[in-house]
Amino acid sequence: MKHNNPTIRLHLWLESENITVFGLGRLLLLDRIEDLGSIRKAAQQLGMSYRAAWGKIQASEESLGVKLVKRPGKKRDGCRLTADGRRLRDMYKRWFAAVEEEALSQAKSIFPWDVDGFDTPEVDPAQAVPSENTVQAEKAEQPGHQNTR
After folding, report:
1. Among 131, 145, 100, 101, which Cα is nearest to 25's?
2. CB 100 within 8 A of CB 8
3. Rounded mean pLDDT of 3-7?
4. Contact predicate 33/81, CB 8 Å
5. 18, 40, 47, 107: least buried by Cβ within 10 Å?
6. Residue 7 pairs with which residues in a beta bridge?
7. Which pLDDT tens digit goes with each residue over 50-93?
8. Distances (CA, A) of 131 to 25, 40, 45, 126, 135
9. So what's the pLDDT on residue 105?
10. Which residues pair with 13 in a beta bridge?
11. Neighbours of 59 (CB within 10 A)
12. How far is it, in rounded angstroms, from Cα 52 to Cα 117?
């Protein structure tokens, strides 16, 4: 029988009054917007509607009091992240990496078997294209939370 090491998995988000302000799903959305220059294309790649993507961006902007995306010109010119959007994305990535590193360290010291981290040296999970499971998990409603992620 083949033995596989368990892998730690984390789901971290910021919320205010039981409403998600920012989490992995929104990080992935901002990354795709930056890469593709379009909310519609980013939403499509993540398996969500434009309306859902735009709603998540607006909810985060309203909660944080900053604009995360901007249109550089005409509507057809697409959109880009603002400086605040890039800053939030980068801070969340640093926070996630620090928490994951500490969680892995603690798991290795507590459990009597080897435990693996989710990411590999070559792939940063915050940069990876999400699997269908990741997208579905982001859509799943958390108990006691409104599903606005």
Report:
1. 131
2. yes
3. 83
4. yes
5. 18
6. 116
7. 999 999 999 999 999 999 999 887 766 689 999 999 999 999 99
8. 12, 19, 11, 12, 6
9. 93
10. 23
11. 19
12. 31
Tokens of 138: 């982001």
- Dihedral sign of CA atoms 103, 108, 110, 112 in order: positive
Gyration radius (Cα) of the chain, Å: 17
Alpha carbon 3 to chain centroid distance?
31
What is the per-residue pLDDT across 130-142, written as a single tens digit (0 to 9) for each? Answer: 433 333 333 433 3
Residue pair 126/96 in contact by the 8 Å Cβ criterion: yes
Please state, in angstroms and rounded to a whole number, the distance separating the CA atoms of residues 93 and 127.
9
- Residues written for the chain: 149
Residue 102: which H helix or E strand, with range? helix 83-110
Nearby residues of 110 by Cβ (< 8 Å), 6 or more positions away = none
Q: How far is CA 80 from CA 1, 38, 126, 138, 144, in A?
A: 50, 8, 18, 23, 33
